[in-house]
Every structure is written in C-alpha cells, then in structure tokens.
Amino acid sequence: MSVKNSKRKYRYRKPVNWTFLLVLITAFQVFCAGQILLNGGEKLVKETIYIVFGAYILVEWVYFLVFAGILRRKSFEVELIAFFLSGISLALTTSVYPDKAYTQLIAVFLGIGVFIVLLWILSDIDRVIKLRIPVAVASIAALVFTLIFAKEINGARNWIILGNGLLSIQTSELIKIAFIFVGAATLENLQSTKLLTKYIIFAVACIGILFLMRDFGTALIFFFTFVIIAFLRSGDIKTIFLICTGALMGGIGVLTFKPYVANRFASYRHVWEFADDKGYQQVRLLIYSVSGGLFGLGLGNGKLRYVYAATEDLAFGMVCEEFGMIIAFTVLLTFVALVVYSIRYSVAARSSFYAIAACAASALLLFQTALHVFGVTDLLPWTGVTLPFISRGGSSMMCCWGLVALIKAIDVKTYKRYDKIIKD
Amino acid sequence: MKSISRRAWVLYLMTVAFICGLAFLLYTFFLNADSWSMKKANRHIYSSSTLTTAGSITDESGAILAATVDGKRVYNESKSIRTATLHIVGDSEGYIASGVQTSYKDVLTGYNIFDGIYDLKKYGKGSDIQLTVNAELCRTAYEALGSNKGTVGVYNYKTGELYCVVSKPSFDIQNKPTQSINNDKNGEYDGVYLNRFFSGVYTPGSTFKVITAASAIDNIPDINTRSFECKGEYKIDGSSVKCLSTHYTLGFEKALNQSCNSAFAQIAVELGSEKLTQTTQALGFGKSYIVGNITLAKSSFNLAEASKLDLGWAGIGQYTTRVNPCHMLMIVGAVANGGTSPVPYFIKNITSPTGKTVFKGKTEMLDPMFTQSTAQKLNELLRSDVVNNYGDYRFKGLEMCGKTGTAEVSSEDGGLRPHAWFVGFSQRNDLPLAIVVVVENGGGGSSVAIPVANKTMQKAEELFNE
Amino acid sequence: MDFFLEQFDYLVRYVFAIIAVVILLRCVFSLFRSRPRREVMAKLIDLADDSEIEIENWETSIGRSRSCDISLKNYGTVSRFHAVLALRKGGWYIFDTDSRTGVYLNGEQIRHAGKIFDGDTVSFGNAVMTFSSNGYGAMSEDEESSVRDYTNAERLVNLSDNSAYYLSGSCLIGKDSNCNICLPMHDISKEHAEVYLTRNGWMIADLDSESGTYLNGQIVIGAYPLYDGDIISVGEYRFMFRE
C-alpha cells in the first residue's frame, strides 16, 4: 500500500504535566525568596517575603487544583508561562522595592482575576458580540476621563491617582484589552460590514487621545495593533499601506515641526556618547546586562537596581543582570511562541473573533516586548514602554493577563470538558 | 476562516524580524561584553572611574606592583619602581592601552561572559597576575636612561620571558601629574601613555646593517672575501650616501665593525631591492606580532618607490624604514638562538581567586628568521663588533655581542639629534639575555646607548644568577 | 551554615537557569504538541450535481468570491460574500450577510440568521444544498466518553475494560505477539493496523487486514488522521483515541 511507504514518522512529544511544572515553578520561586533573604539589605522585612511568596505560591496551587483537579480543564501551558513570568516580576519588585511588594502581589492577583473573568466572558460568543459596543463606549469614556483628570508622570498624562496615591491606574494599559476586544469580530459580522469605518473611528479616537496624553510608546503599540487587526479583518493591503504611509508622514511631520519630540531621540544609536545624560539609563543597562553573564549575579547582587526606574523601563536589564542572559532570552522567545501558537490555532478557532483576538493579542505582546528590549538596548529609538509581565506595574500586569486570556481562548480545548468521571 | 488564518501568516514576518533582532542583540552582547563590562560606569569594578576591585600584579620575584586593598588600588611602595614599571603595569584609568591593568582587565576582574562579574562579587577580586618582568631591573634601566626619552627591553632569547620593559617618559601613578601632562608645552610628557617598547616605531639606523649583512651572507657567496672602498661617501646616480669617516679599503667584517655606510650602501645596491625585501619579510617586517594580548606596532620596510640612492640609504637603516624595538629584540634574539627566536611574553602565570594556576607563560618558537649558518656567522660578526670596535671592557664580563645605531631623524643641520640604538646579547650560556636600547634624540649609539645597555645588563646578570 | 549559604548562592544561579529553561521550553513545546482539531464537522450537498462540500471550520463563509471558504464560482446569482455557516452554542446557524438574492432555508427566506438542522435544504441564490451535520452541534456531545481521564497524554483506551495504551512512536495492533497491542482473536490479522505519528499528528493505517479497520464507523482505506475522541474498531475491539 502506497500510504505505508510514504509515511514519515516523527518523534513523540509528551504533553505537559502541570503538577511537575508547578513544582518546578514553586521551587524557582522558593529559591528567589531565599536569594532575596540572603542578599537583601537593611530595608528588608523578612515577613514581607514570607507573606508575598507564600501567598503567591498558594494561589498558584489553588488555581490549578480548582481548574485542573475539580473542573478538569486541559492544557495549562499558557497559564504556566504567565505564572512563571509574574513570579519573576514579583521577585524583582520584592527585592528592589520591598515596600511595593504587596501592591505588586495584589496586581498579580487582580491579573489572575481578569484572566478568569475574561475567559468566562469569552466562552459565549453571543455575549461577546453584545458586549462589544458598550466596551467601546466605555473605553473612550475612560480615556477622555483620564485625559482630563490625569496626573502627569514622566511627561505623560496617563495616570489616574485615587485616594491620595493609594491606587494609581494607567488607563491606557487596560484599554489595550478593550481595543482588541472591540476590534475582533465574528465572520458574519465581518462579511456584512465590509468597511472598517467604525473601527477606524474608534482606533483614531483612542490613538488620538493617547497622543494628547503624550504617551507615544503606548500610542505606537495601539497603532501597530490597529494595523494588525485591520489587516486580519479586511486583508486589504492597499488601505493598510495608505494608513501606514499616512502615519509615517504624520510622524515625520511631528518630528519636523515639534523639534522637542525629535530631541527625545537625539541619543539614538549614540548612547555611549550621551553616557551621562540622555543615554544614562541605557548605557547602565548595557554595562550591567553583560556584567551578569549567562547565569546572572543572583537576585540582589546587581547594580542596575540603583538606576532610576530599573524595574519598569529597564526590566530587561534587571533580568539580564540578576537572572542572566539565558533566562532573559528564553523569556523573550516565549513571547514568540505565543504568536506562533496563535497563528497555528487560528484556523481551528471557534470563531474568527477568537482568531483575530488571539493573533492581535500575541502580536501586541511581542511588539511591546520588541519596543522595550530593542529600545532600551538602543537598536530602536527608546520609547520607554514596559516589558510585558516582567515590569513592575499593576495596570500593565492586569493587561498582560487579560491578553493571555484572549490567546488562550483560541483553543477549543480551553472550554471543552470532554471527559467525565466514570460512575463505578 | 480560511482567509483569516491565511492572513495571520503575516505575523510570521513579525516573529522572524523579532528573532533576527534578538540574534543581533545577542551577537552585539557577545561581541561587546568585554569592553562594555569594563566601562568606567560599571560600579562593580570602578568607583569614581578608578579601577578598584581587581586582582594583584606581581613581578617575577613576587614583589607587588599593583593590588586591591580595602577597595582601593595600591601600587609598589617605591616611587622609582612605580615609575619604571608604569607602562607594563598600566594605569587604572585605561590611558595606557598596552598596560596589563588595561589589556588584562578581564582577567584581573575575573570577567567572562559565562559567569559575568560573579567571581569578582564573590572573592572581591579576579585572578592575580605574575609578570616575568623584574621590577629592580626596570628601575635600573629607567635610571640608566637618565634624562632622555626612550625604551629598554631585555628578554631571555631561549625562553622568551621579557625581563625588563621600560618606556620613558613616565610618571608616578600614585601622584599623577595630571596638570603637567595636560598642559605639556615643551614636550616633556610627549607620548607618555605610549609604551614605546611595544607600540613605538623608530628609524633603525646602523642597527639595520645586521639585516643587510644577513641578506648579503645569504645572497652573495663571496661576501667574506670581498673588499670595499670608502672615500667618506658612496656615489650613486650623482648623489651620495655619506659615511661618518673615510675608511679606505676594508673587508666585510671590518665594514660591519666600523659601521661603514659606503660599504653597506654598496652591498644594498648590489643585493637589489628584491633580495633585501625578501630578507626583511623573512624577518617579519610588515607583520603584526602578538605578545600576550598586545599587538606590536608593525615594522615597515618598503622599497616599492625607491630609487637606487634610496636603496643605498635603506641598506644602512635610513630612508622610510621603521622598526619596533620589541621586533628588533626578537631579531637579535634569533641571531643569538641559532636563527629562531621565542615569542616574547610577560605573563608568568595567572592564579584564579580560588588559588588555582589557570595560565602559565610558555615558550613558543617563532618561525625561523635565519638559517643556522647565517645566524652563526652573524653571531661571530656581532661579537667582533664588540671586541674590535666598541671594546669588550665596556661590557665587563658579559661576553656581549651587539651593534649600535645612530639613526638620523632630521635632514637639516642643527635639527633633532639622532636616536641612539643598541641591540645585542650575551654569549654566556648562563646568561641567555638579549637587549634593545633606544634613546630618543640621544646622539651617537656608541656613546649614549652602550652605557645604558651595560648598566642594565650588569644588573640583569646580578639578578639573573640569584 | 555559612558554607552552605555560600554554596547555595553560587549554585542557585545555575539551577535557576536550568529550571527556567525547562519550564519555559516545556510549556512552549507542549503548546505545539497537539495540533488544532480539524475534521469534517458538517456537509453541504449540492443538489445540482450531488457533490459534497465538507465543512471543517466552526465558521464558514459562502459566496462567489475566491476568498470564501466555500466558493460558488459557477452560480451567477450568488453574491460575492453571501452567507456564513457557523456552529454556535445552540447548534448550527446560517447567517445572511447582506446578500442580494437572500438565503432561503427550507424555502423560507431568513432574516439575518436562521437555525439550521440536519437534512434542511438551504439555498443561496440559485445554489440549492442540503445540510447534514456530522454529529456536531448536538446539545449533548456525549460520544462514548465514559472514560476515566486524568492526563492528556496520547493514548488508546480499550473501551471494554478502560485500560489505556500510552502511545509513543508507532503502535502496531494485531494478533501477532510482536504487536504493541496484541489481540489474539481469529478475525484479526497478524498485523492488522498501525497508529503512528507524522508531522500532521497521529495517523491510523490499515495494514491490508482481512476484516478491515474502522474509524468512527467508516472503513479505513490508506491512512487517516486521528483526533481526540475518535473510535477505532478492530474486530470486536473498540479503542478510543485520546490526546
């Protein structure tokens, strides 16, 4: 039989065993806690570390016991990645800013909450379709609200601070999820509304407000996501090309007529010449990244942590110096894996909504990672965006968990409970 | 669905671009790791732009030349030793590029891309380096140079160990005269950051006659029986190569002893540019030698556009010929060692923070420069130079062979004084040392360079046999 | 104690890297381990020439345009983007996406959306088709899955006694004692069937057996891809494939 001759065999890959990996993740986090205890300075309060890591590990186990043990869900790869990366973020925050550890812990918990809720919302496509318009209106409203009432931090008016600084929210981060949520659509929806007009209006409104807030990095991410979604929806290269050209012209126009914007990029590709002013942070990042070597110096042994905004804008360098290049680059490759995963599963998604949402969400994560990593290492102009999951920040943590929920929703297996316990 | 999943393939472009970016980033990290990690902004290693945390540097006898004590970099307690060994030890700010503190910075700090700066964090220092250089000998050589600029190098022509490396001008690293160096008007600190021994090139003058002689021995069969006519100058194409005195008729050996320009210009013209270039190439002119991890300045010998007159001048070490002192030392070392010189080295051993010896300086031979018979012949000739011309009494008990040089650096009268050279070696079996001395604008080789060489070699003998 | 702390600090760096790489690579490989499920979920039978159109997606676009999943090029009265057939929670639906000639379900024009059942006739312009769902869309997806199931490793579950054979590499099924799954029954050939892994996932091939191998009730000729929940029948034995 011809079939027999033509078949080629492939090596068998075992599926992930969540208990084993969760034990590894727990071990990693316990080691992190140990290192912080060992290398921590006088500022350190031991109880903080015990509570933060104890609570986090507990929540991880509870999550898996509930979803895998009781609800019998399958395929936990995406969650495991997210838990691991959040763990790194938590370890860095606890080590560098012990006083902000609880805030970050709560942010991670909120993120997990967002993840669970979003997955639940996404389980019913009819519910999703009904929610799209309200979400669009709400996000514009939130952005306008932010524009009016926001505090200016680091030259960008994108922080809403409530209760005397007890709670500070970066609205634009949360709107990222809404932006994709509104942009994705089911196939019949796509076919009956061939024009992108409504979505373009929404996107222009969002990006415009971000520009007014002077949050250029986020505006760029939104624009990129918009281009991806617009292309996935329409496949219309001509229009996309026009939009991109327009944006490029606009960008050049801004740089020509507003020289202070161009001035921000004066040190691009020349950071070493500006080692003590504009390129200060980047130069330190490069020096300390290679100082860490392949295996890093260990949590708490680094020097990059004393540079301003180390755990936010320079998060990549922190991982490089204290955890080492191997971990840093593996983390980056993980984001690539999420994109490839979305592409591969897009054909079998339950609706084009999931396909578009997952592709856009993973592309957004990768694009943001690229802007962060290449920006801070001076391969691209530096826009000061955060590294997904790793950078400290509550809003961005919630956003990342939300995006991951969008990615996970693409797989049919996420929702299917296709096994029942035998009744003996 | 089909169309959407097909469009999603566009994202592959993005991932490919991202991975290319990552690969490039990793490449730049690996490429620049050594230089970036050693930047002064790295507070693991530097504090206020001074190297503070690094391994110690000791000389051949174990005397400390540089070390880190309580987070501060300290040097030898003797001011004259600090000054004499400045160029080989290097400074902590990295101005002296060929100094060990700069060129072996990654060893001293224990940096490697694998473990990063971790060893430094753990032990407070990197590896310790012991040099083959003797600090006492350096001091003697430095003092022997007197008020002149210049360089002295001594090495063991059997093993390659550099015994003395001195470059002048220098300064005391613990009281660096920054002001004087920056506002240097009369040239007192000209090229103070340059280690002249490794990185300098000079007109060789008469020392080059050794090379012309080698070419003659190889290419002119009856050279030993030839006689040359010297009338105070040698006429070529209407112009002439001047000689310092009128030697009348003299043989080959005598010509070298007396350093007769007429005779050697004549030999050079007879050899022709091709043969002479061939010899210099065999000796490593135009080649970059690597000593430790320092690349020597290239010696150059180029007759491509030379006239016959230029050829004559080139034969006596003038014209555009430039020689690096360390390279010259290797050439006489080869003469002394039967045609082959060892690669000079100055790192005796490197000890890791855990006390393990991770590197030991080894004797490695260069490609042969001369045939054994040529080397033997040159050996005899150079010995007869000392015996018959300079006088053996000037190197008491050393059995020196050698050749002086007086390299004209200014064509006008009353211009700069010539560089004084001496290259040579001891024939004694228990003293296998070769020496090169260059005294910048010092005057005559015999009168200026020989005393420096003698003082250094006498001290070397005293130390060597201990 | 200090000694241990020192060693801990030194070693943990390497352990860190190993753990992190193991975790992340393991997850990433696992992400790509199983392929998305692709199988015939429903069929449309074109009444004009009795040709079958297989539907493999949850959402399928129908129209004259080439970029549609079902491209009805030969029908002049079909709009470029005419309709969408979608599997939703409640079952199969057909959506009219602003077509010129409308979508008719059992002769009645639908307004925007209509639920479609097995055996319904649906017409897009002058293209008339009957719809048959391939078991999908029924409210209870019970199948035969009364199987205790904790892991998601690939395996063949013998439905008679719920014993599992875990797949790794290829698996021969037959009477012969060399076979990975040995079934000593007279109506089973020596080497009856083989389950093996290819780039496109697990496949089943019949090895010229006398009584034949059945996949979900259909006879296996050549090789077929296997998906989670598929039933393989060999003689009297039935195996469920799980992944």
Model description:
The complex is a heterotrimer of chains A (424), B (466) and C (243). Chain A has one domain. Helix content of chain A is 67%, strand content 3%. Chain A is built from 17 helices and three strands. In chain A, strands 1-2-3 form a three-stranded antiparallel beta sheet. In chain A, a hairpin with a 4-residue loop joins β2 (156-162) and β3. Chain A is globular and about 60 Å long. By secondary structure, chain B is of the alpha+beta class. Chain B has a domain at 199-344 and 363-464: Beta-lactamase (3-Layer(aba) Sandwich). In chain B, the strands form six sheets. A six-stranded mixed beta sheet of chain B has the order 5-4-3-6-15-16, with no helix packed on it. In chain B, a hairpin with a 2-residue loop joins β1 and β2 (50-51). In chain B, α8 runs antiparallel to α17 and α11 (209-219) packs across α16 (372-390). The termini of chain B are far apart. The model of chain B has no long low-confidence stretch (mean pLDDT 85). By secondary structure, chain C is mainly beta. Helix content of chain C is 12%, strand content 38%. Chain C is built from one helix and 22 strands. Chain C has a six-stranded antiparallel beta sheet with strand order 2-1-11-10-7-8, with no helix packed on it. In chain C, strands 13-12-22-21-18-19 form a six-stranded antiparallel beta sheet, with no helix packed on it. In chain C, strands 4-3-5-6-9 form a five-stranded mixed beta sheet, with no helix packed on it. In chain C, β21 (231-234) and β22 (237-242) form a beta hairpin. Chain C starts with a helix and ends with a strand. The chains are: A mainly alpha (424), B alpha+beta (466), C mainly beta (243). Chains in contact: A-B, A-C, B-C.
Describe the structure using short key phrases.
heterotrimer, A: 424 residues, mainly alpha, 3-stranded antiparallel beta sheet, 17 helices, 3 strands, 67% helix, 3% strand, disordered N terminus, disordered C terminus, C: 243 residues, mainly beta, 6-stranded antiparallel beta sheet, 1 helix, 22 strands, 12% helix
Summarize the structure.
The complex is a heterotrimer of chains A (424), B (466) and C (243). Chain A has 424 residues and is mainly α. Helix content of chain A is 67%, strand content 3%.
